[in-house]
Amino acid sequence: MANGVRKVNHPWTDGQVERMNCTIKDATAKRYHYDSHDQLRDHLQLFVDAYNHARRLRTLRGLTLYEFICQVWTKEPERFRLNPSHHTRDHTLAPSSASASAPFKPERQRNQDTSSY
């Protein structure tokens, strides 16, 4: 395979997009059953927000993505058009009517009892 076919410094050169898609799929569609697309959309948004605000990444030296962006903003605000701290979502507000009517149902439980293996 010729190396000139792929472009340098793009996500498809090292599988970043595919890895993230697998992470999202494993955390949503493979674990839960959704009665509607709205439920999937709501859960996907919750997952992405949790990932961005709670998941500590080694490549960012243990910071969350949100913490890293805020840290860069304080050092180099000229790189940003908007203050990133103003773009957080409040999930304590009332959920949409689709997700309020039925909770997410686990389709299968993973690794509940490892002693039987």
Automatic annotation (TrEMBL):
GO biological process: DNA integration
Positions with biased composition (Low complexity): 94-103
One Gene Ontology molecular-function label: nucleic acid binding
Location of region: Disordered: 82-117
Sequence ranges assigned to domain Integrase catalytic in this UniProt record: 8-64
InterPro entries: Integrase_cat-core, RNaseH-like_sf, RNaseH_sf
Top-level taxon in the UniProt lineage: Bacteria
Protein name: Integrase catalytic domain-containing protein
